[in-house]
Write a structure and sequence with these properties.
Layout: H1 4-14, H2 21-63, E1 66-70, E2 75-76, H3 78-86, E3 91-106, E4 109-119, H4 121-126, H5 128-131, E5 134-137, E6 147-151, H6 152-158, E7 165-176, E8 179-193, H7 198-203, E9 204-208, H8 209-215, E10 221-222, E11 224-229, H9 235-245, E12 251-255, H10 256-259, H11 261-299, H12 301-309, H13 314-345, H14 347-358, H15 365-368, H16 379-405, H17 409-415
Parallel strand pairs: 4-9, 6-8
Antiparallel strand pairs: 1-11, 1-12, 2-10, 3-4, 3-7, 3-11, 5-8, 6-9, 7-8
Length: 416
């Protein structure tokens, strides 16, 4: 597409002489702007995507894809109901749960509100997000009526570990002749987990199902059946299949898109807005390419006229200046791609280094829910960023190149 002569002239124009230093400075600003814009877009979109993936994996890994609740009251006959749900195509698990709020107190004082979940011991061990993240203790001792599993942050808060006692105080007390007395029971900590999500590590505790039924006074019932399906995106369709397969069951189904719709919608909107805002960096750099090329054309008016009189066609001049602008855009985009990918792949190490250097917390788990900065490279999105940067860079060269090609050599030399 480009002849050796056109390439030689284009790169000679890019190497500005001392008298053309200002043009060179603008070209460098354009180059750096495109590189930074592409790198920033890749990094931010990867972090936002990783944030969504991590939250989705942890929320759904612990809470399930669909919840089956009683139309009124609590679920009875839950084992038979769970077995019927497991037989529906697409369902990979159905776990009866007892869930309730309680106040936790440690042996040294202090209190914190927690969500208590009662789960059968075999189901607890099969829940990989919990079983694979046990920090201290073992789930082998998660049985009987005196065992409890808590998160590491809650354990640190109360300065307790496996073998220590954690007391639960239920707001639903027992009625006596002297009024309502809170239900209080101390449990022995058998294990601590670290899922990596602050809200769960600080506010969830697990009891064996039988112990939770006794504590919450639900001897033959559960509060819900937690359902896992083969893929989160199929939750709504499989929910309809469960409803069709159990038309007589007095249950209502709530899938994860309904339970967390506002949260994930907010994350998606934030992602789209960040993409739009950061794209402006590349757009500004593209305008810098236009201004630098227009100034280059103005400065090279006499040289263009000489080239035309020596036999260079309008197309040759057009291609020379297209190559000048494209070189800035292509090289800047490639540099931004390399910077963005390298930064994304090492973002956690960079965060830790910044924290050590600045002596402050860069990514607070209490604010962002997660204990580490997530980043997932989505190559489709990276390709879109590269295509947008290259497209804007090439579009920015069209008008200056056309203006250079349309110069009349006679008029140009006469004005000189």
């Amino acid at each position: 597409m480009f002849t050796p002569f056109e390439r030689m002239v284009a790169f000679r124009y890019l190497r500005a002489r001392r008298a053309e230093g200002f043009i060179s400075v603008i070209a460098w600003f354009s180059f750096i702007g495109i590189a930074l814009g592409v790198a920033t877009l890749i990094i931010v979109m990867s972090v936002m995507g990783g944030f969504r993936v991590e939250l989705l994996g942890r929320i759904l890994g612990l809470n399930g894809h669909i919840g089956a609740f009683a139309v009124s009251g609590n679920l009875t006959g839950y084992e038979a109901l769970a077995q019927r749900i497991r037989s529906v195509p697409g369902v990979v698990g159905a776990t009866p749960l007892v869930e309730g709020q309680a106040l936790a107190t440690g042996p040294e004082g202090g209190a914190a509100g927690v969500l208590v979940r009662g789960m059968a011991p075999d189901q607890m061990r099969a829940r990989r997000i919990l079983a694979d993240n046990i920090i201290e203790g073992s789930l082998d001792r998660f049985d009987g009526d005196d065992a409890i599993v808590i998160g590491t942050r809650l354990a640190q808060r109360f300065r307790i570990g496996p073998g220590d006692r954690l007391t639960l105080v239920s707001p639903q007390g027992m009625s006596t002749a002297f009024g309502t007395v809170p239900r209080i029971r101390a449990y022995r900590v058998v294990a601590t987990f670290d899922i990596g999500m602050y809200e769960y590590d600080n506010g969830f505790v697990f009891l064996p199902l039988a112990a939770a039924q006794v504590y919450f006074q639900l001897p033959d019932a559960v509060t819900q059946i937690e359902i896992f399906v083969d893929h989160p995106d199929n939750a709504r369709r499989i929910g309809r299949a469960i409803r069709d397969a159990l038309p007589d069951a007095p249950i209502r189904l709530v899938d994860w898109t309904q339970a967390n719709s506002a949260f994930f919608a907010a994350v998606q909107v934030e992602r789209n807005v960040m993409f739009l805002i950061l794209s402006l960096i590349i757009l500004v750099a593209a305008f810098n390419i236009i201004s630098s090329l227009i100034m280059l054309v103005k400065d090279k008016t006499r040289a263009i006229a000489v080239l035309r009189t020596m036999g260079a066609t309008r197309g040759a001049v057009l291609r020379i200046f297209l190559m000048c602008g494209a070189a800035i855009g292509v090289i800047g985009t490639l540099l931004g791609f390399v910077l963005g990918v390298v930064f994304t792949l090492n973002i956690e190490a960079i965060r830790e280094a910044l924290q050590t250097l600045l002596g402050t917390q860069v990514f607070q788990a209490e604010v962002y829910y997660l204990t580490r900065l997530p980043a997932v490279l989505n190559w489709r999105e990276v390709s879109q960023v590269l295509a947008m940067a290259l497209g804007l860079s090439l579009l920015a060269t069209i008008y200056p190149a056309w203006r250079a090609a349309s110069l009349d050599p006679v008029e140009a030399l006469r004005s000189e």
